[in-house]
User: What shape does this take?
Amino acid sequence: MKKYHGIYPAFYACYDESGAVSAQAVRELAENLISKGVQGLYVGGSSGECIYQSVEERKTILENVMAVSRGRVRVIAHVACNNTADSMELARHAQDCGVDAIASIPPIYFHLPEASVAAYWNDISSAAPDTDFVIYNIPQLAGVALTMPLFCRMLENPRVRAVKNSSMPVQDIQMFKMYGGEDFTVFNGPDEQFVAGRLIGADGGIGGTYGVMPELLIAADEAVEKGMNQRARDLQNAIDAIIYKMCECSGNLYSVLKEVIRKRDGLYLGSVRRPLQGFRAEDEPVIDEACKMIDDALRRFL
Assistant: This one.
């Protein structure tokens, strides 16, 4: 079995009622997801609200995830900050914690040449020399795309083992697989196209909505693996309907996802950190409907 495969929920930021990082909630969420059969956890990325957290907060979250995981699942730690020094510090810390891989978006805001982006990634990787490196390609938010010349340049670093591809064209997955080689891993990023990404060559998926319905994503992954294309398509349609329903809310999606988990799993993960906006009272009926859709899909498919 390939080292990296399957379903990796993007781990949510966990806060207490005052808005501080809650170590207890981090541990409870990690155990909840692992108990449902996921293959890995992706910690400290977009769903983890990383750009609104301090370096020390991000360390605390990862330490508590690792205390729970204890080798039961793969853990990928996203370590990018908008400066190289802090990113390298998080990379060193992640390796000391024993993660399987570190990941990074490109530096944001300033439009840097590809040589600078490559230097940034390689500097981060050098701080964790015994740990695999995952490139996180999310051009719609980072403002920088992983072009094929930049990708091929990064393949010169032997620690670069995977791409988390969140660009929308599934063709990008096919190209990264073709140039990366059979042993190179590509994770599908956009949750709404998980099955399409897997069919064109992705080895698994990392997704922000996986945490509220990991069982459905695991079932879709297994259906693809077994060649059960109609079941995989039906599962993807059900997953997408749930995503579209949650996106009807006026509050930030991450606050909605956390409320779904509170209602369905009894875990309080707090709200979201400003400037993100929490869900509103008028979102409650929509959230309840999304919870029902998840329950109905679980009864239908599992």
In short: The beta strands are 6-9, 40-43, 74-78, 101-104, 132-137, 160-165, 185-188, 204-207. The longest helix spans residues 229-246. The chain has twelve helices and eight strands. The chain has a mean pLDDT of 97.
